Amino acid sequence: QVQLIESGGGGVKAGGALRLSCAASGLVFTRYAMGWFRQAPAKERECVAAIEWHGGGTTYADSVKGRCAISRDNSKNTVSLQMTSLNPEDTAVYYCAGGLTGWASGPYDFGSFGQGTQVTVSS
């Protein structure tokens, strides 16, 4: 059974930074792409970043491009999302996601999700 456990969420002021981490278990981590989604109140879940199994290919939503960086450590089965220049529109629950294959570029490429971690950005 795939388990994805997020950490690193919290409150931050606008302009600040946060680093989210996700520990994965129950899967052969190096076979799958990984990603981060977010969902704000009354909004649909959005895929904000994805990284291919080898870490060489990354994709970002336009809303976070240039402010976020996704990375993975295949030796530790972890994936991280470094977020900078945060603004109140980034407030959401952030979910770690496991890919269906080793490649992913959009929301339909993922099949498993963690419980989420809350990120709140105050102005």
SSE diagram, text form:
Layout (H helix, E strand, L loop, with lengths): L2 E5 L2 E4 L4 E8 L8 E6 L6 E6 L6 E3 L7 E6 L4 E6 L8 E8 L10 E4 L3 E6 L1
Parallel strand pairs: 2-11
Antiparallel strand pairs: 1-3, 3-8, 4-5, 4-9, 5-6, 7-8, 9-10, 9-11
What descriptive keywords fit this protein?
about 120 residues; mainly beta; seven-stranded mixed β-sheet; four-stranded antiparallel β-sheet; about 50% strand; globular
Provide a descriptive summary of the structure in words.
The chain has 123 residues and is mostly beta strands. It has strands at 3-7, 10-13, 18-25, 34-39, 46-51, 58-60, 68-73, 78-83, 92-99, 110-113, 117-122. The strands form two sheets. Strands 2, 4, 5, 6, 9, 10 and 11 form a seven-stranded mixed sheet that branches. The protein is globular and about 40 Å long. It starts with a strand and ends with a strand. The model has no long low-confidence stretch (mean pLDDT 95).
Describe the structure concisely:
This protein has 123 residues and is mainly beta.
Helical residues, percent: under 10%
- Mind summarizing the main beta sheet? 7 strands, mixed
Query: What is the 3D shape?
Result: globular
Helix segment tally = 0
Query: Could you give the count of β-strands?
Result: 11
Distance between the termini: 40 Å
Average pLDDT, rounded to a whole number, is 95
Low-confidence runs: none
Radius of gyration: 13 Å
Supply the helix-strand structural class: mainly beta
Quaternary class: single chain
| Percent strand | over 45%
Order of helices and strands: EEEEEEEEEEE
